[in-house]
Amino acid sequence: MLESLLNKVRRYPGVMSKVALAPVISSFEKCNSSGFSNGDDTAVLKNLDGYDLFAIEGFIPNFVAQDPWFAGWCGVMVNVSDIAAMGGRPRAVVNALWQSSDESAKQIFAGMKAASDAYGVPIVGGHTSHKSDTTQLAVSILGHANNVLSSFEAKSGDAIIVAMDQRGEFRAPYLNWNATTNAPTERLRGDLELLPLLAEKGYLTGCKDISQAGLLGTLAMFMDCSKTGADIFLNDIPKPKQVNWEDWLCAFPSFGFLMTCPVDQIDEVLTLFQQRDIDSACIGQVTERPSINVTFVDEANVINKEKTDTKQTAVFWDFEKNHFLGFRKSEDQKESLCL
């Protein structure tokens, strides 16, 4: 049943790791010195010709140990996605590596270099330590935007659009959907360029890249930042036929974005992604109601084992009953940094 599926997604470690960030919310100011909300995919600072974007990603040590080359690749990939989600273009990355093995470090650097070449983003510096019991990796990025997108600006009545590149496969043992390492360079760069293009055309009201929290977990972060809710139609979410719903809703896609836009801009947004063969769809609507409701029409024995044609609706997250990141606290409370 739908409720059983949503319960499994709610308990997914990627979702729970985001909920666990709530205590951090009280540690930092609501806005930075440029007036932009803290808690977005990147920090934003105004400059003379637009906006500087800063982000950093740290990686789970077990992931780095098990797949060091791909961890290095992801160090660049996830950062350029954060920049794109803010409507920006990446300029340069730096890294910090604590290594326990020269061979592991060699593979990490090779993965970073491969992604740097593929995305056209130079590695311009970093810090490396050879005196560590474990291998730990963090990568930071600088980008630039002419028009900033944010996860704090979704409005009730906006359409919710998802775009996820399905031209890939899971890279075991995690639910990392890899559609990048074998993709042509021109495709990788051209696909990412869609986000700053959408920002500069003014089509979107908000955007967030899909993280380790998966599609619904990232949506909960997005709606929490905007202090809104959502109605989502599961049947409308594009999904590879060979992947089950639980895995797909928990997947961390190498190219995946949630966007909001006025309903009269839906076709323009979808057309840009479809022209580049990226699966995209309008999957719901932003609501004033402080919860995320999911509806599914069980037409073909997909979720339950009874062949029926029934409409099911269940709540994925009720922000009044359970905090997510904690952005719905009173205005006099402080909020968090980039997540």
Question: Gist?
Answer:
With 339 residues, the protein is of the alpha+beta class. The protein has helices at residues 2-10, 13-19, 61-66, 68-85, 102-119, 185-192, 194-201, 214-226, 245-250, 266-274; strands at 43-47, 50-58, 88-98, 123-129, 136-145, 159-164, 169-171, 176-178, 206-209, 229-233, 252-253, 256-261, 279-287, 291-298, 310-318.
> Helix-strand pattern, N to C?
HHEEHHEHEEEEEHHEHEHEEHEEE
What about the largest sheet? 7 strands, mixed
| Radius of gyration from the alpha-carbon trace, in angstroms | 19 Å
Average pLDDT value? 92
Strand content: 25-35%
Number of domains: 2
- Overall geometry comes to globular
Oligomer: single chain
**CATH homologous superfamily name of the largest domain?**
PurM-like C-terminal domain
Please tell me the CATH architecture of the largest domain by its name.
Answer: Alpha-Beta Complex
Structure, described:
The chain has 339 residues and is of the alpha+beta class. Helix content is 30%, strand content 29%. The protein folds into two domains: 2-25 and 150-318, Alpha-Beta Complex (Phosphoribosyl-aminoimidazole Synthetase, Chain A, domain 2), CATH 3.90.650; 41-145, PurM-like, N-terminal domain (60s Ribosomal Protein L30, Chain: A, 2-Layer Sandwich), CATH 3.30.1330.10. It has helices at 2-10, 13-19, 61-66, 68-85, 102-119, 185-192, 194-201, 214-226, 245-250, 266-274, and strands at residues 43-47, 50-58, 88-98, 123-129, 136-145, 159-164, 169-171, 176-178, 206-209, 229-233, 252-253, 256-261, 279-287, 291-298, 310-318. A seven-stranded mixed beta sheet has the order 9-12-6-13-10-14-15, sandwiched between helices. Strands 1-2-5-3-4 form a five-stranded mixed beta sheet. Strands 7-8-11 form a three-stranded mixed beta sheet, with no helix packed on it. The longest helix has 18 residues, at 68-85. It starts with a helix and ends in a 21-residue tail after the last strand.
